[in-house]
Amino acid sequence: MLAEIRHFDDAHRHAAHLPCWQQVYDQISGGRFHSSLSRLHTGQLEVFREVLNQRVVQYGCAPADMVHFAIPIHAPLPMTLQGRAVGRDAITALRSNEEFIMHVPPEVDSIQLSVRNDDLAALAPEFYQQLYGKRHWQPIIQVRPEQLASTRSTLLSVFEQAVENPDLLAFAGSQKLVQHQLISLLLDMLHDSVPEQRPNLTYATHCDIVKRSQAIVLDSSDEPVTVLDLCQQLRVSRRTLQNSFQLIANTTPVDYLRSIRLNAVRRMLLTPEHAGHGIREAAGYWGFYHLGHFARDYRKLFCELPSETRQRGLLQ
């Protein structure tokens, strides 16, 4: 996984540092150019945050075999994409190899995600069909203001923690959790843009979904399982999975899977052959890349700190 933060004093150099993009940035407003570019690359997901202090026109071609989404953090108006105004409560989506032209105002700040076509087709089939099925696709997607604000806040927190903790991202479990969490946040925003067909499931079917989820988790004791894993393997929507866990287990899939991973860390800290390993290593192995949140959740579940558990493991 690649995680880096760079600063530039030239728009051309900034644009050239995104190798998957065939694009040009031309500075339009007068004054010294300053920008920052934070990148996170997992192999399956390319994420970057860019901040530009001058008005810029961006044009070129989006990456191949991926769908590219841009989520505004701070976006003064007016901004246009493909000749259309981008509203305050909107995200944008460019299809694979799509030519684009975008006029960006000064002081714009955005997070941008490029998701592989195959992943998006598997995880959001209705949206994917709409994206590539329409002859005249509109790249601007309106989002409910409260949904955008919530997603923006969480997305920014996840991205910053991932970029600032590159040592934890050396673990495959952390890479997977970051990737799936970012995609999940994106899918939450897209949910309202496509009408969902809600099946009328029986109580027994909900029970079976939770039971099969448990079997998948138990069969994957060497790596963290995510909500997206369960949806793909069970062939159910994230909303169906959520309803099943809420009805049967009185919890959410996210909270349930987090508890499973916390228990896995605890076993590692208590097991003699693993007790010599550090807490950061155990947490990173099971996908916890935000140590502050990890310690808080661990103490809430077990009523003790990870360091206390590790100390008892060392004394055994």
Describe it.
It is a single chain. It is built from twelve helices and twelve strands. With 316 residues, the chain is of the alpha+beta class. The strands form two sheets. Strands 1-3-4-11-6-9-12 form a seven-stranded antiparallel β-sheet. The mean pLDDT is 87.
Identify the notable features of this structure and list them briefly.
Jelly Rolls; five-stranded antiparallel beta sheet; alpha+beta; 316 residues; seven-stranded antiparallel beta sheet; 12 helices; Arc Repressor Mutant, subunit A; 2 domains
Quick structural gist:
The chain is α+β, with helices and mostly antiparallel strands. The protein folds into two domains: 2-144, Jelly Rolls (Sandwich), CATH 2.60.120.10; 172-315, Orthogonal Bundle (Arc Repressor Mutant, subunit A), CATH 1.10.10.
Topology:
Blueprint (H helix, E strand, L loop, with lengths): L1 E7 L2 H6 L5 E6 L7 E7 L3 E8 L3 E6 L4 E9 L5 E2 L2 E2 L4 E5 L4 E6 L3 E9 H7 L1 H9 L6 E3 L2 H20 L7 H19 L12 H16 L8 H8 L3 H12 L3 H18 L8 H7 L5 H12 L3 H10 L1
Antiparallel strand pairs: 1-3, 2-5, 3-4, 4-11, 5-10, 6-9, 6-11, 7-8, 7-10, 9-12
